[in-house]
Design goal:
It is a single chain. The chain is an alpha/beta fold. 52% of the residues lie in helices and 13% in strands. Strand 2, helix 2 and strand 3 form a beta-alpha-beta unit. The chain is elongated, with a radius of gyration of 23 Å.
Length: 300
Amino acid sequence: MRLGMVGLGRMGANMTTRLVHGGHEVVAYDVDLAAVEKAAATGAEGAVSLDDLVARLDAPRAVWMMVPAGDATRSTLDALARLLARGDVVIDGGNSHYTETVARAAALGEHGISLVDAGTSGGIWGLREGYCLMVGASEDDFARLEPVLATLAPPNGYARVGPPGSGHFVKMVHNGIEYALMQGYAEGLELLKSARWELDLAAITELWRHGSVIRSWLLDLAASALRRDPELEGVADYVEDSGEGRWTVQAALDSAVPAPTITLALFARFASRQDSSFAGKMLAALRQEFGGHAVRRADG
């Protein structure tokens, strides 16, 4: 199949390479023309602009976007809407908020252009292992894109989960679960590190990978990280969040669905960014006020 790929960051570039190796013809574009040159070196056809990319595709066209959610997705979709025609399809493989995807699909649909949302999981390992694709699309659009989806995904690694918007919703919840799983591993390993014995965390995580009920790919990655750096000396305890955890918690609030584990995992990330917690100071001050408990004085 011939298609366009817009956005050649770590995910988009690797997906382009996997598609080319799978026998597809990919016209690739990025605002960073050096990234376009790298994609061309792997067998893609480079484009110098969105206009150029669309002109190189025959109708009905398919254009896959791997650009950051928010303004970048919004501006790229607006530009493509002016360039594409009835019967064309755009695939948003980024982490857009599902409510925006539903609205965008409706707006593009008025012009006969389909929007497909493909929640994409696999990270930097996707080139080798394949990407798990959670697709929101009409049945016809899904069938049309299936050769591409089958190339990008591992066996049984892609599915139509519902109409446009549902793919991003499923990916959002997927990422919320990821927050909770990661937090569970992090807390458990810290507890092991604080034990009375000097435990080999790298060996223990490797052990757990074989037959235990908590084995997972995240555990594989934990074992790999601990093998390289047993004390994690090269890593700061500052954890960002990219938005999907917040959206998952908000969706739980909107639906009155209890999601305490995911919510606490998100708040733990917030706590990791505090050099000094005012709440912690307040707790210490209150203990001193009601019970005369000693407080540890801040330097200076």
